[in-house]
Amino acid sequence: MLRYKIIAFLALFVGLAAAQQKVMPSTYTAFTESPYPETSANQQKNLASDYIIYKGSMQPLKYTELIRSGEKVGGVTFAQIKTTAGATIPHSSTLTSVATITGMSADSKSATLAYDAAIGKEAAHSNTKVSNMEDFVSLLKTRNTASPNTVWAVVHLEDRPANIQVLELEQAAATGILTVKKIHKADFSADGGLIATCAGSVSPWNTHLGGEEWGVPSSLKWDSAVTGAYTSTSDLGGDVLSLRHLGLHDDDLATIKNSWTPYMHRWVNEVSIDDSSSVSSPTITATKHYSMGRYSIELPYCVGDFPQVCYITDDSNTGVAAMFVPDKANDLSSGELFAMKVTQTSTKGVGAGKFDVEWVSLGKASDSQVKTLMGTAGSYIKFTDMFEIGTKTAGPNGDYDFTCASGFKATVVDGGAMCLKLKTGMEIAASRFETRIYAAYVGASAQWRKLEGITWSKNRKEMYFAISSNEASMEHKLDSKGDHAEGDHIGIEKNTCGCVYRAPLDANNRIKSISPLVCGVPTSFNTEDKLGHTDGDDKCDIHNIANPDNVAFMNGHDILLIGEDTSKHKNNAVWAYHMETHALTRINTVVQEAETTGVWYHENINGWSYIMNQVQHPDEASTYGGAGTVGYLGPIKVPGVEAEPTQPVAITGATGTFFGESPYPETSAAQQSNMASPWIVYKGLFQKLQYTEIIRSGQKVGGVTFAELLDDSGKTMPHSSELGSVATITGMSDSGKSTLAYDAAIGKASKTKISNMEDFVSILKTRNKATPNTLWAAVHLEDRPANIQVLRLKQNPGTGILTPDKIFHADFSADSGLIATCAGSVSPWNTHLGGEEWGVPSSLKWDSAVTGAYTKTSDLGGDVLSLRHLSLHDDDLAKIKKSWTPYMHRWVNEVSIDDSKSADEPVITATKHYSMGRYSIELPYCVDATPQVCYITDDSNTGVAAMFVPDKANDLSSGELFAMKVTQTSAKGVGAGKFDVEWVSLGKASNAQVKALMTKADGSYIKFTDMFEIGTKTAGPNGDYDFTCASGFKATVVDGGAMCLKLKTGMEIAASRFETRIYAAYVGASSQWRKLEGITWSENRKEMYFAISSNEASMEHKLDSKGDHAEGDHIGIEKNTCGCVYRAPLDANNRIKSISPLICGVPKDKSFNTEDKLGHTDGDDDCDIHNIANPDNVAFMNGHDILLIGEDTSKHKNNAVWAYHMETHGLTRISTVVQEAETTGVWYHENINGWSYIMNQVQHPDEASTYGGAGTVGYLGPIKVPGTAAVGVDNGGKKAIELNAEAAKAAAVSGAVSFVTIVPAIFAAVLALMM
Fold it and tell me: Mean of the per-residue pLDDT values for the chain?
């Protein structure tokens, strides 16, 4: 599948040297996101990041295959396993007559015979064992000065048995491509051969280090004196295949024991290559290091610093973390071994755990000393030669706190703790042959579970290690997995998706403490097939790691690479974790069923760098045909020393757009700052990015104060703190008196209301051809009451910077002013669209005939402040009701600016669109396509999703209103829900018609009971959930509790507009949405996207306390207090036809990356920091295939804006705002005179912040647009809103009887006839 306009293929680049183009500082490295493999085709491919910014230079990236299983080089077959004598090994399928296998159980026999990769069955390989288990690969530098472009690859074949092959590579000087020239073998016959060589590392002295992990029979059960010991070879199960390298797989157990012992395996191995005399005939030295202990070795890692220490990880249940200090640097043949003992400093059973560390010495030893202690054929050391096994006496908690006889110690052992007593003089033997058990015996912590890769950051002085699955022995008091009270040092919360930990070092390079860095997230809202684009196999969140395995630090780049070994992502991935930003970027996925192995970073080999990554055991049906592969991401050209450029740089052949990650604000200073992505590649133009402020609350421009609110007569309003003597406020309850402190402190000095509630800002183009660089900003001040201010902006042609030079007011006095203008949109016809959301008293309670109605002004609480624009805030309720009604508010508003005659005196037209219905409006959004439809979102409990079809395009004064009805197609109560959609008509109406209906013939305002009759509820079998109503009444979903309602005759239009939400529910639409926030549109994808800030309350199933009733219970989702963004495909008429979740936040009860569980997170982070929290505004970057998502949350310490790349499903944090502030009005403006802008306001910041409590209008940018700049002049002429206003004005002047004035009389006459 070709990617939609993301990036050009590598072939488009005219040479790598030309493709590297520098714009960032030379220390900066980052990756673009590799796609989530959504389609079957992509699941059978290796996918990789398209670009890397490497030390400031951007260049293409791809996965490059080096060699594949079964490939022949010089007549030698790569990955064909040989015996210690050098002979090929028969394929497992040929062993049907082998006695030891025949004696197995049927299931075990079948699995054993089918074990080897099918590739060995091919005719070319003659039924021999050809492994597809490529794991770690070291790239070692040549020692031959005459052949600097020779590189050596030491390849682990992690199999039963294993081999290590050595590849002679030639590096192309011009391209960095590596080519295999010859295959050699590392000979371990002197050490009994190899079994299951897993991960590894490159030593600081240029040798290969590895280890043997699995496939070895239990050393405990090998001892016939131990209960449960093996009695026949068939007891070994599939591990009998490991003995093929010695030809022992068909011998009886006694014969095998005479010549072999498990103690020959699970050791560190080292390979060195000396080609100083001859490249064609190098000296390959291979040895095992018995001095370093025996475990299920994932890998050894030696720190490239002094004093030198080496860490060894133990991939097992009841594993131990070990450290080896060599007697001599770069020589592992002798030294002192230590085991880690931890003290958990975090709460047991909560999160991934935090620990203090001390080191317990296991004594000194040498390779030769330990190898001698192993014994010889016929007399190998056994477990009971080292330990005496005692009897357990059950304790109060059974096996968890059993006791032992005197002299014995309760010791943590996998499968069940034991009573052990070390035999005299066996310290060295036990410490090396049974390292894990001996470590537990002497008091170290032997409870790690699948302790995988480990790596080191030189600059940060930290180690990082992976725990593939945080469970079993790491859980608290799990005696069935080996725990015992005496050694129960670790007690974490179960997490089957695993974690990566960070471990700072002391001055001696010894780990001193441990805390989690990042954790996978099991069974979240972004798993399985809950999203539609995810898979049933995705048991861990697709936006995060799953079962981390290999880790490798990119020293000099501050990036941690994390590879997966998982069945909980459909495809295994490699991730790049940027330490400073805490950004997690998927950089590679491998084919289905394959594991990504041996992730390692090789820096600057002859000017080229490589990220090694093998494809292990791929699906037989994949494009790999079951063959494993050695390969790398790269080659990556190492740039030279260049001056940092100051101008944007075009990336040759690139057309896509992607962002760098904005840092997670970890420090107090960062939390009090606005932060943004450091760079953007915009349609192939690589440039810096920043947050740019236009204007701040209280700033004066031409003597006018920005954000100082005016009442309907144009006067300033008193600050709330000045209202202490106001009767309505004085009469409030104690909690209500906080109303005095409502207004932002910034207005206290002037004693006027200056808002810090900046929300949506439309950037509108000029209509004046003489001033193309004049722009207009219509600014929502989302307050009680609200204003819309209009800023005249001057755009600098050379830099794109926007500067305000005059402030105007949009006059809504003809429509009774504004309250809480929230989000908005720019119409396709270049006007501002917005709406009023909150701060309006309940229209139900305003009606004195309704139970629970308001009886006095103080009942209005803080909403009394909303009446200041009409100076009604200190009047008694009866007086207010005569001149005001809640039905004056919560309407769509529109503002147009006509500067065609004069930019100094523009004509600003402002109106409310009563035709479009009344809700808690988040925003209206009109699709820029034919037929034209406009969507309106309702930010409330029991909210409704509405659609308006104007009678005439670009004219919202009249049209037909629809409400959405959904049928849930997904299981109730599971995930965020999937739905089919139909649309219920609420009838046609015009602004004039509806506005006239607001005032009755007697001059009073319409009330709820003028439209609906309220009936009595009769409780049903499930109480309020299925109550019944009298004949003629309908059970209707209403916030706070469903009601029995009956529409009064002839009130369809009135009810559909004044009580849109309730009327929609009454006629069968779905009125259960909860905090239905921003909505946006993708032109190319033909989809809408909308945000649900918090999936709960009325959206939950059968929650009658929140308004649900059986008759209207259409939505029943799983509670998620972090919210979701949904996708909604459109039909041919641009109407939403279905809905499914696109991405969801992950709450703390499902995530390990919340609160202060990681150390770098905050107690306020109640939603996963690597994902969205309470999404609010959304804006689609048409032409870029990116969805912008802004937060309105208290569940992230700082609110963020995210970029969601639709094709890759990559989620990138691109901005955070100061603490306590909301990020509002996120909107994308494309190519205004050659510059683009991502609007993003800072609303109600912390008074103690660098903003001093002042809100801000600003943007990410300016972003330079490559190519020809668009002309930012609107040539569309007069707008419908202006023509309608002019017509109304002319009618008023002529004295004509208008529709507006005649409708009340007609309505009264019709009513009279009905009565």
Answer: 92
